[in-house]
Amino acid sequence: MSPSHHLSISPSPHLTMSPSYHLSKSLQISISLHLTSHHLTISPFHHLHISPFLSSNQESDDGKTYYVKIHTPWDVLATYADVLKIKVPFKANDIPAHKDIPMNWLFTPFRLPNHIMNPEPDYFTSPFNKEKIDFFLIDDKETFFPPSVRNRIVYYILARCAYYKEDSDDKNKKGIKRLLNNGTYGAAFPLHDVRSYCITVTFLLAAKTALPSGLLKYYGEKIGIYFAWLGFYTEMLFFAAVVGLICFLYGLFTFDDNVWSKEICSEEIGGNIIMCPLCDKTCGYWKLNSTCNSSWQSHMFDNVGTVFFAIFMGIWVTLFLEFWKRRQARLEYEWDLVDFEEEQQQLQLRPEYEIKCTSRRLNRVTQVLVLPSLTCIITLATVIFWISLIIACIIGVIAYRLAVYAAFASIMKDSPTNNIHMVGSLITPQLATSVTASCINFVIIMILNVMYERVAIWITDMEIPKTHLEYENKLTVKMFLFQFVNYYSSCFYVAFFKGKFVGRPGDYIYMFGWSKLRNEECDPGGCLIELTTQLVIVMAGKQVWGNIQEALVPWLLNWWGSRKARSHPESLYSRWEQDHDLQNFSHLGLFYEYLEMVIQFGFITLFVASFPLAPLLALLNNIIEVRVDAWKFTTQFRRPVAAKAHSIGAWQEILNGVAVFSVVTNVTFTSDMIPRLVYMYAYSPDNDLSMKGYINNSLSVAMCVFITTPVSLSSRYRDYRYPPGHEKQYTHTMQFWHILAAKLAFIIIMEHVVFMVKFFVAWMIPDVPAEVKARVKRERYLIQEYLHNYEVFILMKTCT
């Protein structure tokens, strides 16, 4: 018998139970389990004259763990395929396939050729009916149901088998999950197929992003939809990466046309402009040309291409989500999920709910028992508390940035290269603060990541969700909210708050008002380069650390576990022992894979205007990610029980929300492009539309009386205010209000334009391809026609 539908169950090695422990009365099938400390058997007895399980017992190499190998014969597979309404082929598809799918040629480099993919013939399918076996295309009963269906049926039966002691009054206990939770069994998992097949699957997954058909039969639709989404996401990233690279090269090649950077670096202009001290007491004056390198670097990311790329990404994310809906609809048809209903095991009550939910009240409308309001209030308060803790951590990081900012400025004051000459040739306090703060912030993010994960699970457990589907959806929302604040908060600070609430010399704004930590200022070239630095360190660091963690940790745990488990290395190492020594693939295994990719999706959409190379980094990471996941699933984790899923679930709505929010973040105050355009069109000398004199225009003058340093000099600072001696001294000039109005107008117009394009594109692209709609209608028609003809044939055959 093929091992693909074996389910190996390993009981707890120290379990002592009465031999009269029963699993019985589940869907008219009863199974008796006889267990002693040295022997375990499953003896089937039945009501439908079918044997639900064939089993054998195996002792492990350590002599303490015992394994029960279970598989199902044809009669049981047919019975439960009928119960679960599993769709099987009944006729070859007679609708010609569309070979000219729009833009299909663009994805050809990412897909394997057909002679390697070995696609199977397309069939019309119908729910299986045991009484009409002749109606279906059954060539070989041993291979008719794929491995994923077989192990799903076995697990379905085990999840509903009742168990109780003969002298016990509680005969409602049932399910392998409860037996696993209470320690009766140590594990229950399907066996991997032969290693050569696993290696083949790994190769197919690793070769390119296309989804091989063998994966679906091996792991089922739930894992299949993840790899399909990851592959499609990687394909679409290619186009964003190409455009982002072009925008970056534009900034690189227009290096010499950057007039304002030339003015900053010029000895005649930047060398003669003395800037205000960066802190109140210990910092000295500094020359503007000390930020020369920073201004050149900023130009590579802050140029006209930045605006274009922000608009492009707003359209790209819409195309990605809309085309994914079409791909998903096509997969739903190809995988027989058109009339999909959630798996019954997903909708089944969780054992934790039945055990913990002791205090419930009756819903007046639905008459269903629900949790009391007090429990919900406590849960909400807990969520608010932990979000407040996250915000406190963010404030702590900001306070660190302000302290380090002042420290670097003070240290560089005593540098031999300073004394009112230069802060440093290659580094500025802003850049030093940004790099060190980003590194420390990344470490804090990784630490908080572990804590927030446990907190999210703890809070979700407190809510006691009724079903596994409800549990996953609630955990998804909480985890994403925690991770959203954790990963993106520092980027939001630099993009929208840093340099915006600084004040002026003599009237600076301090953190909390009473502290001595003065709010950070941006470089004269803008804050965009600091946002780029933050984004690169956090995004790249997360991706590198994530891949190392995904690949190295399971391998080390498996190596150590197999080393400890084998007391006699020279003895035969059975396949069930090998699989048992692998890492367990929990029901939240895919949850973390999706979370990792959605966080990455946020990085390449929310702040992509500051770093056009972000999609390229994501593309390179995903090329590695699909290989790591393929290797990990087939060699480092136990084979999970196959499950159905027709979509990526709650993650789809999260992606939609991030896509809409990204339009706002990419067109707001991040870039200095608007002040430059206002100067060029309204304030440039002689109205020649040049940027000559922009730096001098963008800096205001301060009197030395406001500066708490022993040196008396007239200095400059980054703002648009009237100079001392003017009747409106130190108040904002009209240019400031013009720039603010231009920014607001740009935000409103660009948001409306991008949103209109998004909605127009979404309206123009149908969620379900016309070809798929035609195939679904054709299939439904044929099912009715063939069933009618089959019934007539059977009736005539009976009459004769």
In round numbers, the mean pLDDT is 73
Strand percentage lies at 5-15%
The gross shape turns out to be elongated
As a percent range, the share of helical residues equals 40-55%
The profile of the biggest β sheet is: 4 strands, antiparallel
Radius of gyration: 33 Å
Give me the number of helical elements: 25
Tell me the strand order in the biggest sheet: 5-6-1-10
Overall strand count: 18
| Head-to-tail CA distance between termini | 39 Å
Structural class: alpha+beta
Poorly predicted parts? 11-52, 413-425
Description of the molecule:
With 800 residues, the protein is an alpha+beta fold. Among the domains are: 1-86 and 145-191, no CATH class; 260-561 and 578-674, no CATH class. The protein contains 25 helices and 18 strands. Mean pLDDT is 73; it is low at 11-52 and 413-425.
Quick recap:
This protein has 800 residues and is an alpha+beta fold. 54% of the residues lie in helices and 10% in strands. Among the domains are: 1-86 and 145-191, no CATH class; 260-561 and 578-674, no CATH class.
List keywords for this structure.
transmembrane helix; 4-stranded antiparallel sheet; 800 residues; Anoctamin; alpha+beta; membrane; chloride channel activity
